[in-house]
Amino acid sequence: MTIVSTDQNRLGNLSILPINNIQMNNEEKPDVYEKLYRLNVAAGRLITEGKRSPEALVELLGCFVDGKIVVDINWQKTYKALGMEKDYLKVQEELALRPYQGFWNMIVLQGLNPLKLVTALKNSKVNVQLDVEKSTASQNIIKNDRDPKNGTYHISLRRRIEADKENSGLSANTLKEREVHGVTILERLLLELGYFLTTGHHLDCRNKTLCTGSHDIDGNVFEMRWLCGESCVFERLEVRKHAPDHSLKSLRARSVFVL
């Protein structure tokens, strides 16, 4: 199928996807391709009418081809790995959270702690830096902005592989002055587990999440990232501590929106 632009000089023939050439197997439903066809036509019309940017579509399709589409997290699967699936389903039904485009809704269940999350990551064959468990132990974190030991709660985070670019280069002290609330170390561990179990990939491969929601006894905050690349011998989940006034361009908080 080819979508033809009404502005031939500007776009010519806009062919997004040759749907007619797709071969379906027995498990695939034709209505999926009907929906894809309609979206295909609608996308072409919006671009030719100047209501959408062709660059945006190119970027989106590029992410799809490269396997970088940021999907919603399968929280049921995540809590099943934590041995808390029944509790999650009960709370999910009670809260009936409405999905928001471009955001992850995260339910943090009472009884969850960093040790459970580190154990679940290891059981899922995620290589965890040796001192992550020690760094995130409850006795080393004396203050959390939110803590499930006080009860179940839920938050919203921007649906991004890399931490929020808006917070790039801003220290924990600066973010506090601007009243920007960031994730706790527990929330970042939960996000890592959920994203990995859903996609098989990791978060923060190029940047680092500054977990401003947690502090140790000296007032330091934590960073978390997936350490990888050509110079990395062993890919692994890494946690480090920083003074609250420390800042780097690659160090970014993930803003938290309390629901």
How do the strands and helices of this protein lay out in sequence?
Elements: E1 3-4, E2 13-14, H1 30-48, H2 54-65, H3 75-81, H4 85-95, E3 103-108, H5 114-123, H6 132-135, E4 143-144, E5 153-158, H7 172-177, H8 185-199, E6 208-211, E7 214-215, E8 221-227, E9 236-242, E10 251-253, E11 256-258
Parallel strand pairs: 6-10
Antiparallel strand pairs: 1-2, 3-5, 4-7, 5-11, 6-8, 8-9
Helix pairs in contact: 3-4, 3-8, 5-8
What does the model show?
- This protein is α+β, with helices and mostly antiparallel strands and 259 residues long.
- It has two domains: 3-65, no CATH class; 75-258, no CATH class.
- The chain contains eight helices and eleven strands.
- The chain has helices at residues 30-48, 54-65, 75-81, 85-95, 114-123, 132-135, 172-177, 185-199; strands spanning 3-4, 13-14, 103-108, 143-144, 153-158, 208-211, 214-215, 221-227, 236-242, 251-253, 256-258.
- The strands form four sheets. Strands 9-8-6-10 form a four-stranded mixed β-sheet, with no helix packed on it.
- Strand 8 and strand 9 (236-242) form a beta hairpin.
- Helix 3 packs antiparallel against helix 4 and helix 3 crosses helix 8 (185-199).
- The longest helix is centred in the N-terminal third of the chain and has 19 residues, at 30-48.
- It is globular and about 60 Å long.
- 28% of the residues are buried.
- Mean pLDDT is 84; it is low at 1-16.
